[in-house]
Amino acid sequence: MAEEIDVGMKCIKYMLFVANFMFVMIGFLLISIGSTIKAIYGDFETFMEAHYFSPATLAVAIGVIIFFVALFGCVGAIKESTCLINLFAFFLTLLLILEIAAAVAAYVMRGQIEETIRKKMEYSIEDYYVDVYDRKAWNFAQSRMLGIIFAWMLAKAVRRLKTQELIDQDQNRQRIYEQLARGKDENPTPVLYTPTFSEA
């Protein structure tokens, strides 16, 4: 009986370790994605107000928090430390509350953020020839948008061609059915009369 309990506890310990290790990897992934986005799309921060967090910075911050919280869980599971497991549970609960609060705040402020970005873009386009940072941001945005617009137009053209092909096929099919229907009415197929056994 004691061996079964021991095996069960080891199983729980390693399952907790594996789950926390996955969270460590997710935290590391968020850090790398956030830093990559910040490096590539850093020029768009010109259009954001200073008091708004950049999504890339937020991803890095969440990644760091998840990384350390999951590290508590990993070490606590391996060392079988009740203190570390309790710390892990506390920080995980706190992280969940913060994520819910961030999601609610983002949902509530989405209209305000959109309006702020629009105004900031309008102001920065006026300083295009004066401010180097605004010029770099607009050049970068336009180069990215040009590619996006081209891809959108290409997809729309392909969709239009495919739709036209389907319409043509449907019209051809309809024309064939109409010809067959007209052909049956104009030239009815002759029916041979065969007498029944009683008539013969």
TrEMBL record:
It is a multi-pass membrane protein. Its main location: membrane. InterPro entries: Tetraspanin/Peripherin, Tetraspanin_CS. It comes from the Eukaryota. It holds the Pfam family Tetraspanin. The chain crosses the membrane at residues 12-33, 53-75, 87-109. Keywords: Membrane, Transmembrane, Transmembrane helix. It is found in: Membrane. This is CD63 antigen. It comes from Asbolus verrucosus.
